[in-house]
Every structure is written in C-alpha cells, then in structure tokens.
Amino acid sequence: MGQILERLKTWEMFSEAQTQLKLAVPVTASMLCNRFIAAASVAFVGKLDSGSDLLAAAALATTISNVTGNSICVGLSTAINTLGGQAFGAKQYHEVGFVLQRALAIMTMLLIPVTAVWCVMGELLTFIGLDEELCSAAAKYLSLLIPGLWGFAFKIAVQNYLNCQKHTRPAAYAAIAATTLHVPMNYLFIYTFDMGYLGAALAYSFSQILILACLVGYILISGLHLQTWPGWSREGLKGLRGYMALGLPGIIMLSEWWASEINIFMAGYLRNSSLQVATMSIYQTTIGMCFMFSVGLGTAVNVRVSNAVGAGNIWQAKRSSITTLALQLIVSAVLGLAVITARRWWSSVFTNDEHLIDRLVMVLVYASIYVVGDGITVTAGGVLQGCGRQAQAGRFVVMSYYLVGLPLSYLLAFPLKQGTMGLTAGGTVGTWVHCVAYCSLAARTDWEAQVESSRQRLRSSASSQQLAEMAAEDLERHAMKEASSANGEEASLLGGGDCDDDSQA
C-alpha cells in the first residue's frame, strides 16, 4: 500500500477524482430522487389525520417490499456491474448487451413467485403474531406496490447496463422527471381520488414505472444502445449459470438491507408497537437517504475498477480504489455532521407527533455514527463488486449483521429494555464491523488474479469470434509485458489503459 501511495501523484489523484465525480454525481442524483419518492409517500401517510397507525402500516409494507423484492433485485443486478463492466473494459461490447438479457430473464423468473407471496402477505404477517389490524392495512398497501416492484426490477437492470458503460446521466434524468410528478401524483391519488393512505402506494408504483419508461425512451432516442445491444438472441441465455454465480452472492451482499429491515420487524414486538415501528421506519429512511450520497461513489469505483480489470489495467484499478476512498471519507464525515445537527428539523418533516419526534431525536444520534461507517463500506464494496468478489464479501456481511449486529440489537432492545435505542445501537455496531471487514478484504486484493478471473468469465460465454479476439489480445499483452520487463520498466498492465476514456452520454 505504501508503494502505491508513493506512486500516486497529486495531479493523478485530482484527475481521477474528477472522473469519479462525473460518474458519481448523476448516480447520487438518481438515487436521491428514488429515495425521495419512497420517503415522500411515507411522509404523506404520516400527515394524514389517522395518526401513527397508518404510518406504521405503510412503513411495514415498505419494509416487506424492500426485504423480499427490491433488495433481491438490486443484489442480482450486481452481476451486471461486474460482468458488463469487465466486458466493456475488454471491448467485448456485444457481451454487455447479452449480460442485460440474462439479467432481464432472471428478474422475470424471480418476480413471478415474489408477486404471488405478496398477494397473501396479510395472512403470513398475522400468522407470525403481528397485530391483525396492522397486518391488514399493510397487506393492502403492499398489494399496490406490486406494479412498482416490476418497474423497479427492470429499471435497476437497465440502469446498471448503462452504468457499466460509464453512462450514468440517463438514469438521473429519468429519476428527476419522475420526481417532479411524484408529489402531485400523491395529492391526486390520496385526496382527489379519495384513496387515503393507499394512494401513496399507487403513486410510488406509478413513479417507478415512469422512471423505467423514461429511461428506455431516452436510450432509444439517443442511440446509447447501438454499440452494445446485439438484439434479442439465444446467445443472451448462454451464460445464465455464470450470471447467477455472481448474482446470488450479490443478494447476500445486500442482506445488510434485510438486517436493517429486521430491526423494524423487531420494533413491532415492542410495547406501543405502532410508535416503535414508525420510529424505526423513519430512522431507516434517514440512513437510506445518506446512503444515496455514498452509493454514487460506490458505483463510480465499481465502474472504474470493473472496466480496468476487464482491460487488464491493474494500476488504474488501484488508483481508482484509493482515490474513491479519500473522497468517501470526506462525504461520510459531512453526512454524519449533518444528521446530528439537523435531526429535530428532519424528524418534523415526517410527522407532527411530538412524542415521535422526541424519540427520533435520540435514535438519530446513532444514525450520525452509522452513516460514516456505511459510506466507507459502500466504497470498499464497489471495489469488491468490480472485481467479481461477491461470494467472499457476502460471508463478511453474514458475520457482521447476523452474528454480531442483530443479536446485539435483540439483546439491547429486549432483555436490557433499551427499545429502539438498543435496535439502532446494535445496527451501528454491525455496520462498523462490516466496514472493517470489507476494507481489509479490499486491501488484500490480488489484482493479477482478478484480471485472470475476468478473462475466464468472458471466455465462458464468448462466441468463437470473441474467443479468437481474446486470444490475440492475450498474446499481445504477454508480448508487451515481456518487452517491458526486459527494459526494466513497469509492465503494461500497470500503465494507462483503454478504460481511461471517460466520455459521458
């Protein structure tokens, strides 16, 4: 690590930081818009005259949709980041389109059973012992989130298809367009159509489908797909096993999301459950908003590392990783400070209930600590995904949250009677364990091995012509490396590479 830092000149880091921010800012804008859409719907429910009961129902339904739907789709789509990004870096452009086709096929097979389970969720929630009225209201809300689930799943696949090609702006444009209509749509469904709290769910689904429509429309009109979309083909189904080899561990990486939502479920078993669930839901919404700022840099380093590994450019991958970590430390510190100083005002955005606001002011102290560790974790996770190390990373997620964070949350909340303060404290400890584990794993990356793994993945799904091209590239790379070694210079793998083309759509 010391040698790497010595070689990183100030101007190189500054140039890399500019490139990272060009990728990260649109991603952050897109994610913030998506988070605003979800948070605005919950906030509309919280402002209704029915008090915290309907807010708890909407929060519970949103939690279920995150755990059993959205998080799984996001986890599966991490394979697009790895496979598509490495194929793009290796200039196997049509393979990027085939990766998207595999993702869409797998998403469709996934969503059918998930939709069926959502339709009977009311009975399942009652069976596990939650309040019957709360379960009924949450089930109705969840049923209207089903169209949004399908829109979200396909949207995230298309978005990652573009991200891995360094086109991050289209998703931001689409999300901004949908966000401008989201508040009016909430008013329309909730008040004009007199749907009450259910109108918020329908408005959310409308916005997700609108984002997908805008994104696809933008791609077709601008021609962003022309380089990498080969047309629908059976070739797109050739590498399903390889896709799932990364997608399934990607879901495990996202099981941090599940752990956070499980805390909301545990809050439902505390005394005065509606108030406790509402507290945890707004807490989760807050740290989720902060996550959106960090995920932009996480996506940027994912793109840069995957492209560099695909191109065989090890030095670029290292430089991108270190630069992003430096940027993330600054962003995370600012976010933590913002949360702790503005926590009372932020709480009042969601509710008029003073008792609930007082509780939120207390738990958001932990949120200010949580977001710092979470931001660093996102960056390290982006490096690991760019390399295709989802399986290794997933094991640390299980250890951090399911062996440390959640047991500690339960211990503090129930036996030690700390309630929501205990739930949030346990989650914060789990996140910092996760942070240390990811940073350790990323720091010990064998970059030569990752380049070779990338070549093997591309070969496993390549056509005969692509295999011939890759063989020629391997011979050329080997010859250049031998020549460099003979002259006592750096191997070409450690120099500049093709993946430094940072053009944006």
Search tags:
mainly alpha, 19 helices, globular, disordered C terminus
What is shown here, in short?
It contains 19 helices and no strands. The protein is mainly alpha-helical and 505 residues long. The model is unreliable at 489-499 and 501-505 (pLDDT under 50).
Unreliable runs: 489-499, 501-505
Helix content: over 70%
Largest sheet: none
What does the radius of gyration come to?
A: 23 Å
Oligomer: single chain
Structural class: mainly alpha
Instruction: Tell me how many strands there are.
Output: 0
Total of domains = 1
Q: What percent of residues are in strands? A: under 5%
Spatial separation of the terminal alpha carbons: 34 Å
- The geometry reads as globular
Order of helices and strands: HHHHHHHHHHHHHHHHHHH
Structure annotation, total helices: 19
Structural summary, described in words:
The chain has 19 helices and no strands. The chain is 83% helix and 0% strand. The model is unreliable at 489-499 and 501-505 (pLDDT under 50). The longest helix is centred in the middle third of the chain and has 39 residues, at 273-311. The chain starts with a helix and ends in a 19-residue tail after the last helix. It has 505 residues and is mainly α. It has one domain (2-457).
